Automatic annotation (TrEMBL):
This is 4-hydroxy-tetrahydrodipicolinate reductase. Homotetramer. Pathway: Amino-acid biosynthesis; L-lysine biosynthesis via DAP pathway; (S)-tetrahydrodipicolinate from L-aspartate: step 4/4. Belongs to the DapB family. The active site is at 158 (proton donor/acceptor), 162 (proton donor). It holds the Pfam family DapB_N. Residues 131-267 form the Dihydrodipicolinate reductase C-terminal domain. It is found in: Cytoplasm. (S)-2,3,4,5-tetrahydrodipicolinate binds at residues 159, 168-169. It comes from Maritimibacter harenae. Its EC number is 1.17.1.8. NADP(+) binds at residue 38. One of its GO terms (cellular component) is cytosol.
Length: 269
């Protein structure tokens, strides 16, 4: 076993998966310990480098999480809720850091992740970007400073292949805005208005989602008050920002006690 910490990439064939395979392989602080795919996937049994159309790198894609995790200290997971929850139990048994960028998790999924976090480190965030997490902190600060005369709207845009809305990042920003006002987001969120909706309720936080083309990710937090607006904005132009954040989170988590963490913890915000 190498002294360099090993990281497994779950969903290796996906857009984020391929990006993460490259980032982990190229980072001198870690090594690619495994590449996971779902049973029956055409990549299973192939060298992950070869499957990506590149030279072989000595890591075979497997559909067996136990096999992939046997020589790993961490796993990075940008897949689907069911796959993420199933992997969390195995990562916890292996005492491996589980970095989760999966969105669309429901309350039942989150409760299962909390159970796994009693035995190992889980770092979960709606967005792994350093910039977005700074934006989240700023959103909470501005929300706390302004009174209810300022309406809060969150507008997000992503590529046409994204399957969930609002995005995990938009919800993360909404949580920060609600927390700044001492509110629970689930009590004040307005999503996807359509038809005769009536006047906007004071204190509510609105969400709008745009899907199209190859937009990597854009998020605006709008504070609209009488006579003025404050707009906080983050634009992602390269998906690698999410991967770099995830790798940083995995390495950071290897020095922590079991529990649930987020990128604010990783960045010390």
């Amino acid at each position: 076993m190498s002294d360099i910490p090993g990281i497994v990439v779950n969903g290796a064939s996906g857009r984020m998966g391929r990006m993460l395979v490259n980032l982990v392989s190229e980072n001198p602080a870690c090594r690619l310990a495994g590449a996971l795919e779902r049973p029956g996937h055409e990549w299973v049994g192939l060298d992950v480098g070869t499957a990506m159309g590149k030279p072989a790198i000595g890591v075979t894609v497997t559909d067996d999480p136990l096999e992939a995790m046997k020589d790993a200290q961490g796993v990075i997971d940008f897949t689907a809720p069911a796959a993420t929850v199933a992997l969390a139990e195995i990562a916890a048994q292996a005492r491996a850091v589980h970095v989760i960028g999966t969105t669309g998790l429901d309350e039942d999924d989150l409760s299962k992740l909390e159970a796994a976090a009693r035995h190992a480190v889980i770092v979960r965030a709606g967005n792994m970007s350093f910039g977005v997490n700074l934006l989240t902190k700023l959103t909470e600060t501005v929300s706390k400073a302004l009174d209810m005369e300022f309406d809060i709207e969150i507008v997000e845009a992503h590529h046409k292949h994204k399957v969930d809305a609002p995005s995990g990042t938009a919800l993360m920003l909404g949580e920060a805005a609600a927390e700044g006002r001492g509110l629970r987001l689930d009590k004040v969120a307005d999503r996807g208005r359509d038809g005769i909706t009536g006047e906007r309720e004071e204190g509510h936080i609105g969400f709008s989602a745009i899907r199209g083309g190859d937009i990597v990710g854009e998020h605006d937090v709008i504070f609209a008050g009488p006579g003025e607006r404050i707009i906080l904005r983050h634009v992602a132009t390269d998906r690698a920002i999410f991967g770099r954040g995830a790798v940083k989170a995995a390495l950071w988590g290897m020095g922590q006690k079991p529990g649930s963490y987020d990128m604010m913890d990783v960045l010390g915000l």
